[in-house]
Each structure stands twice: as structure tokens, then as C-alpha cells.
């Protein structure tokens, strides 16, 4: 039996930067999700109320891949009070032939950030208007910044708008997006301004009541919402979901329980419709953006398939450059 | 942030042998399961049919414990054909206060073996007749042997019977149990003989049709069945479950989906009864063995609570002797 390869965050950041290759990797996993043979069980989720913490475990088997990942994602929201990040975690890579542990990716959540931002870019590539002059983001944290940076790789916008309730964070986010994309980034007055002025909007909040209202929609708008990933979260006004010309799920079975589809259905919309999945848009089985004037929404809850895809990608790249430490079983 | 502690199988075997302390550790987790504050989500389970493999992920939060474990248990049943064990896996220990990964227990399934055998001993301690002259096991693999060794620590039987369809394995198991316990161990002619001659029986098979029939039951018998841990598995004749004076689950929510309770209910038995749990027997909230003549059955599907308990125990013991390697985040 071979040794177990251990890679730390620094090595994984070097091996798997957020670039077009990462986006293509995640796109290929959505393509696989639209085909046969994928196994993706429901997310294991555990809440620890005493510590204001939770942990999610995701996995998926993708046909043709020799390995699969099991991802452990803790979120402990009082951590910043003691100087620690809220999100951390790691991935375990196992052989899909023998089940043996092959690699431990001690990424502290980095690979999740990459694969989540990459999924946003896949959605933008297939659903946003061909030309995006202005992109906007509601939220200003790490994922807000990465979503804009990833989106810029597929829709090289010249202007961007950022808004969150935290102005210091907004300033930081604007500076970071400017540095990474070269776009002119401005802090908006409101979430409404972000939506009204942009043709590509990403929402990246932990909101439990909508932060994006139906009244603000306008022709030629694409929205990617990636904040809702638990029962009880809700970023998008249900009326906006109902008003969109096309609403797409990363995975229907997850969005109906954890995503915007849950709150939309609770409000009485889309109750007798099964929306298409992003993978079906990627393969062309379902048509993407209907017209330049259409309003489209893509709901991302985050899939174990993305974790398996990015873990395999990062590990392969790390091995190619000889990174990591070997640990005897 | 502290380093991550990495422990390998050899170190964990040394730190956490199957002894009374391990049994007491697992007993205390069943006690916790009967009280408030435990969080134990449904098991994440993924089947990979192409490779005749599966992986289960279990976890639990136990109040008062500073850490919790997430256990990854793969079972790839064609592995023996290429000289590898079917079962492997590891545990990740995380802080219950911050979610940070604290330790990686690369046990290759060893700690699962210990905590499973220890649960059998907890069941025997609280449910088997006070004096057990002869114990028996159906099955002859690793877990069959450990179940007998653990049972002997709480019910020091003088005779034991082993039966499985594989005679070479039976001989090996008999020799190993003899060596560990000093009991006189014999290979039985049949599963029926094991049950008829024993006052404590453990079933440790992956059976999908019963290997223990109701006709074989006799007064003063305790049965622990630990083989069924998936929808479709079934070791015990549903009529035997119905005939027992006391049927106890490790966790009702699991046994009803994965254990003998599932097949018993499918056969029309125990449909309007919620059985007691082992933790309730341990705390005394529910009475254990009703009389020396009673027939009792304990159904073990394996709980994430046991994993968290044994992981914390093994790690604490390993740290105390300075075992393991530190890995920078």
C-alpha cells in the first residue's frame, strides 16, 4: 500500500489557483452531473448550537475518476471574536477502486472557495449576457471577491459594484477586486443600486430574508445566488424567482431543501415545475439564456461533485510539482 | 493555531487496546445518548457499484466533549482479490468550540473495530444473564473475534462456540479467541448449535436473509446482532425479534432504517412499538434483563457517538505518551 500524501494550504493554493483551468474543471463536473453514473448522497449536516457552529460533509462519485473526495466544512461563527476564521476544513481523497485513503488536503476551506467561485463562473459563462459591462456583488467577504474575480475570467466586465452592510469590508473588497481584475470597482449605495446597474449580479450572503427584491429586476440580467446552503437561508425574493425567464439549480434535490427553490416553493411559486440543472445547460440538453433581454437566475447550493473534481485537480497538480509530504499508513 | 496531530494505526493500537477502559468509554457515550444535548445526524452513505464498494461517514456531538470525530469508513469488497483488506478508513477529530481540525487518526478501521466490539460488551454487561457459561458467535471474521474477546471481559465465560460457512476462518477464530481469553473454544456444527448451546450469542455477518431463527431461542439467552448496518441487511428472523422479552436498539432512528427493526417491521412485527435504546438501559431509565429466564436482543447499527467517544479516548491516550507527528496547518 502506498503512503498517504499530505498537502497543506500553501501547497494547495499554489497547485490550484482560481483560473480558467479551475473553472473548466468545475464545468466538467457539472457536465458529469447531467449524465449517468454519478452518485451524490445528501449532505451530512450537524449543528452545534452551544458553540454557534455547524459542520457539513459532502462527497460524490464521478464516473471515470479514480478518486473521490469527502469534504469536511466546519463553520463556527463566533471564531472571529477570538481571532480565528469562521470557516475551515479539509478534504480526504480516497481511491474509487479500493476505498483506501490516498491524500489529505489540509486546505482550511481554500478549495471550497475556489470550486464555489468557479461554479459561479460556469453559471456566468452559460447564462449571463454575452457582454457584461457592469457586474455587481451583494456581500463583501472572501467569496464575494472570488466570485467577481472568477466572473471576470469569463465576462471581462469594465465596471463592478460592491455592497454589504459593512463599509470597511466593502472598501477592502473593492480594492481587492480592482487589483485582481483591473476593473473600475465602486462601493454602491445599496443592494438595489447593485442590481439596477449590473447585468451580472452574484449574491454571497448568509441571509435568512431576501436581500434581492423582484422590483429591482430588469431586462438582460443574470443573477447567481450562492449564499443559501441550509434550510432557513434565503437571499432572493421568491417573486424574483417566479419572475425570471429561466431559473436553474446546481442540483434540484439540494435546491429544493437548502436553496432558493425551497423559499420560492414555500411562497407558492414553482410548485409544479422541476427546474433544469446547470449541468443540463452546460451539455446543451437544455437551452441557456433565451435572449439578450431575458432574466436568468442560477441557484448554487454547492455540490460534492465539485469537491471531488477540485480535489482531484489540485492533487494532480501538486503531485506534478512534487509538493506535499508522504505519510506511512 | 496549533499543529494538527497525526496518529497512525500502530500508535492507535497501542493507545486504545480493547480493554475495560475502552468498554467504559463506549458505555459513557451510550449514557450521553440517553440524555439531552447530543447531536447525531443521519449517516452519510454512498455506494459505488462499479467497484463493489461503499463508504459511510458518521459523526456526533456529545455535550461536555471538547472535540468531535468525523469517521470515514470505506468497504470495498473485492479488495481481498488484490490482497487488500475490505475495510479501511480514518477519523478526523475537530474542535467542538472552533471547528478546527485537531487530529487525524489514520487507523485503517481499527478504532471502529474497538468501539463496535466495546458496544457488544456494553450490551452484554447490561442484558446478558449474570453468569454466562458458554458464549457463541455466528461469523468468524475480525469483528466476531473481537466481540468474543470484549464479551469475555464482562462475562468471563469458560466455553465458546464459533460458526461461519468458512471452516478455515472458523479454526483461526477459535484459536485467536482461545489465545485472548483462555476459554475453551470449539467450532460448532451449525449456527443452530451455537444458539442452542449458548447463553450469550453475537451475530457478526453481512447477511441479507436471517442466520438466526426463532425456533432456536431458549430461556436465558441474550443475543447481540451487529451485522445489519444498511438497508437490506438482516441477520435475525423477524419472529425471533417478536418473540424476545426485550428488544433494545443502539439508536431507534438508525435501527428502523438499517437494523433488524427494519426487517421485523417489514414482516409486520413491532409496528406500533418504539423499542428502548441501550443508553436508557445503561442509565437505568429503562429496566434491563427482566429475569434470568428472559430472552433479550440488542441491535447494534453503530453510532457516530461511539466514534466521537473512542476517538477522543484514543487521542488523549496517545498524547499522554507523546505519540504521533505534528503537522503545521
UniProtKB/TrEMBL annotation, chains A, B:
Superkingdom, taxonomy of origin: Bacteria
Pfam annotation, one family: OCD_Mu_crystall
Originating species: Defluviimonas salinarum
PANTHER family from the UniProt entry: KETIMINE REDUCTASE MU-CRYSTALLIN (PTHR13812:SF19)
Name assigned to this protein: Cyclodeaminase
InterPro entries assigned: NAD(P)-bd_dom_sf, ODC_Mu_crystall, ODC_N
Amino acid at each position: 500500500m502506498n503512503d498517504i500524501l499530505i498537502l497543506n494550504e500553501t501547497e494547495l493554493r499554489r497547485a490550484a489557483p482560481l483560473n480558467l483551468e479551475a473553472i473548466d474543471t468545475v464545468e466538467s463536473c457539472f457536465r458529469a452531473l447531467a449524465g449517468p453514473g454519478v452518485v451524490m448522497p445528501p449532505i451530512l449536516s450537524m449543528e452545534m448550537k452551544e458553540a454557534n457552529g455547524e459542520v457539513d460533509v459532502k462527497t460524490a462519485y464521478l464516473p471515470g475518476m479514480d478518486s473521490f473526495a469527502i469534504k469536511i466544512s466546519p463553520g463556527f461563527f463566533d471564531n472571529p471574536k477570538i481571532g480565528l476564521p469562521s470557516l475551515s476544513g479539509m478534504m480526504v481523497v480516497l481511491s474509487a477502486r479500493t476505498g483506501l485513503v490516498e491524500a489529505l488536503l489540509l486546505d482550511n476551506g481554500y478549495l471550497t472557495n475556489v470550486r464555489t467561485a468557479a461554479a459561479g463562473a460556469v453559471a456566468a459563462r452559460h447564462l449571463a449576457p454575452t457582454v457584461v459591462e457592469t457586474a455587481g456583488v451583494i456581500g463583501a467577504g472572501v467569496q464575494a471577491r472570488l466570485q467577481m474575480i472568477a466572473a471576470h475570467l469569463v465576462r471581462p466586465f469594465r465596471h463592478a459594484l460592491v455592497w454589504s452592510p459593512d463599509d470597511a469590508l466593502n472598501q477592502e473588497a473593492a480594492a481587492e477586486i480592482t487589483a485582481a481584475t483591473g476593473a473600475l470597482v465602486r462601493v454602491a449605495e445599496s443592494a438595489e443600486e447593485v442590481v439596477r446597474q449590473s447585468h451580472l449580479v452574484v449574491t454571497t450572503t448568509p441571509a435568512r430574508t431576501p436581500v434581492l427584491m423582484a422590483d429591482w429586476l430588469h431586462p438582460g440580467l443574470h443573477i447567481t445566488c450562492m449564499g443559501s446552503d441550509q434550510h432557513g437561508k434565503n437571499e432572493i425574493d421568491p417573486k424574483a424567482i417566479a419572475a425570471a425567464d429561466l431559473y436553474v439549480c446546481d442540483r434540484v434535490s439540494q435546491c429544493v431543501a437548502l436553496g432558493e427553490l425551497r423559499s420560492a416553493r414555500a411562497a407558492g411559486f414553482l410548485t409544479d415545475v422541476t427546474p433544469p440543472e446547470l449541468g443540463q445547460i452546460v451539455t446543451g440538453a437544455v437551452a441557456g439564456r433565451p435572449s439578450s433581454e431575458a432574466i436568468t437566475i442560477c441557484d448554487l447550493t454547492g455540490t460534492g461533485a465539485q469537491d471531488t473534481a477540485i480535489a482531484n485537480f489540485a492533487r494532480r497538480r501538486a503531485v506534478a510539482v512534487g509538493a506535499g509530504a508522504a505519510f506511512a499508513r
